[in-house]
Amino acid sequence: MKWMQLPLGPLQTNAYLLINSKRECLVIDPGSEGEALIQYIEEKGWTPLAVLLTHAHFDHIGAVDSVRDHWKVPVYLHKKEKNWLMDPSLNGSQFFQLGAITAKPADILIQEEGNLIISDFTLEVLFTPGHSPGSVSFYHEESKVVFAGDALFAGSIGRTDLPGGDHNRLIKSIHDKLLVLPEETTVLSGHGMTTTIEREMDSNPFLNGF
């Protein structure tokens, strides 16, 4: 399998596509520019099977309905954020000068950690709250990648000053759920460049007290 990173929208939020050999794909965090994203996927000849959300902040959900409606696929979101897609005060869009950003409710609420199987795709759902109360990360062992949303960045961690944020809980999530992954695991973050678990263990100042 292969993956693609697509920075979208004014905040350059990273959307990701995970593609299998049958040219099926999963769309992870489609944050904006729905028409452009749809055009790109169609030009590649890929067929989305689902939309997976690491969390429901506004910059990760702007193209959710565009993708869902175009391909008639389900949207997955953790149960702790079931109301966030519809509520600008929860998803944070009301606090920024971008207008209210909303989407229809998720089709499938993630209830717990464990394997999520969609066609040939098997991802391990890791509950990584702190940036938001329902943040999850999706670990794809076969590709040696983890889609970490806004929990962990190259040299940084997610902000915790939006509704439901909790700095101490985020640090615990990172240590307990992400840093225990194989060190060669590539971290695919919600913003910025990719990194690895090893690199963040060794040099991330937020995790090492530098």
From TrEMBL:
It holds the Pfam family Lactamase_B. Its cofactor is Zn(2+). Residues 12-191 form the Metallo-beta-lactamase domain. It comes from the Bacteria. Keywords: Hydrolase, Metal-binding, Zinc. PANTHER family: HYDROXYACYLGLUTATHIONE HYDROLASE GLOC. This is Glyoxylase-like metal-dependent hydrolase (Beta-lactamase superfamily II). It comes from Sutcliffiella tianshenii.
